[in-house]
Amino acid sequence: MKRELHPLMAWWAVLYALSMLSRYKPATRGTLINVDSSQHAVPIKRLLERAINHLPVLIADAITEVRT
Questions:
Q1: Does some domain include residue 1?
Q2: What is the pTM of this model?
């Protein structure tokens, strides 16, 4: 790539992948987010918490950037 990936696009890719996992492989998703048996559960939870905090700011910034 000639330019680095915009943070909003990186978040979109991650959340899109997780949404496809939830939609098409719900049993796998259930296994991955089970904190008692999956080493991935806590990192996924932290990732989603960060998304809730960071995405509104990134979206607002992107709208402002496009508008100007």
A1: no
A2: 0.80
Looking at residues 43-66, what average pLDDT do you find? 95
pLDDT over 80 (residue 9): yes
User: Hey, how many other C-beta atoms are within 10 angstroms of the C-beta on 26?
Assistant: 10
CA–CA separation, 49 and 25 (whole Å) = 22
What is the CB-side half-sphere exposure of residue 22 using CA atoms within 13 A?
A: 8
Q: How many domains does the chain have?
A: 1
pLDDT over 80 at 1, yes or no:
no
Whether 2 is in a domain gets the answer no
Residue closest to 61 by CA, chosen among 2, 9, 3? 9
Structure tokens at 30: 């259930």
Please say whether the beta carbons of 18 and 11 come within 8 A.
Answer: no
Residue 41: closest CA among 26, 50, 30: 30
> Where in the sequence is the domain holding 57, given as residue range(s)?
7-67
